[in-house]
Write the structure tokens for this entry.
Amino acid sequence: MKNLNRLLAAVQTPAILVGLVLLAALVGVTGDVTTARVATLALVSVVFVVGLSVFSGNSGVMSFGHVMFMAAGAYTTAYLTIPVPLKKTLFSDLPGWLSWLAEVHSSFPVALLAGGLVAAVVGLVTAPVVARLSGLQSGIATLAMLLITYNVLNSWTEVTRGSSSMIGIPRGTTTWWAFGVAAAAVVVAWLYRCSRSGLQLRASREDFWAAQASGIAVGRHRATAWVLSALVCGLAGALYAGYLTSFNVNGFFLTATFSFVVMIVLGGYLSLSGAVVGALAVSALQEVLRRFQDGQFTGGNELPAGVADLIVAAVLLVVLVKAPYGLMGVRELRLPRLTRRGRGDAERSADATAKEPVSVA
Amino acid sequence: MILEFLINAVGLGALYALLTIGVALLFGVLGLMNFAYGELILAGAFAMYLFRDQPWPFALLMAIVFAVVVALVSERLAFHPLRNADPVTLMIASFAVSLALQSLARMTVLPRTRGVPPERFLSHRVSILGADVSVLDLVTLVLCGLMLLVVAWLMGRTSLGIQLRAAAEDFRMASSLGVKANLVIPAAFVIVGVLSAIGGAVLVARQGSVGADMGLQPMLIGVVGAVLGGMSSLKGAALGGFLLGAATALLESLLPTDLIAFRDAFLFSALIAVLVVRPQGLLSGAKVRVS
């Protein structure tokens, strides 16, 4: 009985989160076309934000550059799944050493995995920078990485089609695929969080110098989390490309970054539940605002474009002022009846001490 | 030829130094890496568009008024309640302010990019010492140079400047010695508003158009320049911005044409390298105040 309880306590948070994700998938499968689209894109956002949370949530270092991993996943999927004849016309000017790009082809699942792996390689290349920096410097450096990625994707016209859209990707992502990857991402993120490396990284989040002094190689764990989160975000990019069938480099720039930052901050970026809840809640909010802007609630009076963005920005500001650690703080979703008195009190006091992290540097 | 290039390079350097000081000042005083800076520039630039039929100096004055008002309102609504937040939270907040201002502009006055007809006198060319120089380059140089001198005087010789520098050095110490936060922080925002208005006016004259997203590039220039020069000291930041501008002018005339498109990638790679190797900035000997 005791063992069973312990097992339940260990798996309840990921189980609840997978349940939430399943709920979103069911809404998508049973609803009409628009609902299915919103739900599937929300699931893709869950994958991305969970990936971001693997790094930011455990290390306490905010990253503004993760969209580049999404871009890596999306472009990889495009190269691998666009039918070869179409690709030959799309990329007629490939430089010689990249001409094999026009020949390769694979099924969507393989492209999905490859997207994740390519993103992980990008993560591996950038990891040394992240391992060395903290706080604001890390924020600026990750943003600079995003700007470099954008500049290269936008200017290397022969290979990336520059600012023209990437078109003709076969629809590989279904709502169930998105659900499957999201559920897997939640489980992987939870396993990492509970692993030795995740625990040490979270210790460094609470107190960097104390963690250093206890012999934790903070840089190494940051790099590990960075690569793992790159992998997950690459999967999100592959799903995104496989669902929309066409995308543009502008989809991987500041607007996307901002919208994911809103999700993770609103949910609470120190907790995995916060990432999932934030991604789902903000996706729903954005859809409601989009309909509001199109005039569906105001009797057909269209509001000027930008109202939705303005409201999202205002919501983010209010959250930052009123609850800087988001809806969830450092808490995770749990079943209420499992917090029995003895255990519950201990946990609650642990929560209370951890509620205000000393620093996020 | 050489003189022309020099005036162009020095003018661009002065403009970039101006942009950089705007970023560095708020970072020093508040720990705020202000991504909404571009939207202050936008406010100034929009005033230049709105008053394009009025005399240029009047439009410039209105640009300053617009940018200062936007700066003060954003301070009051967004950054005042976050005064004790950590730098990363502030940075995210400034992201939100930037997006909010940009969508406001897009909703109301600038749904698409507008052309601003160039001022007649700016497109003249004059010859100085045998070199053929456009008035625009001269005005850029003189206006930005003048502003830099004013800022230098303000920071060096006035009581407000000393308080600002003290606050940038160590905010808690300064406030316990009687520097009033409610004075220096709005004052810093006012100065930043003025600087960004001048920057915006010069940018409008150079580009000939105003669009809701025009603030991004100058904001990034400010951030890069400030990081290169060392964010805690204004002098270092100004020098960093100046060198960045001069280097940009040099790169544009020296880089092979097929690499010019990747200029930003080179620039930001250099930024990351500086952050990793010398986080206190290339030109600053002081310790940097980070989180």
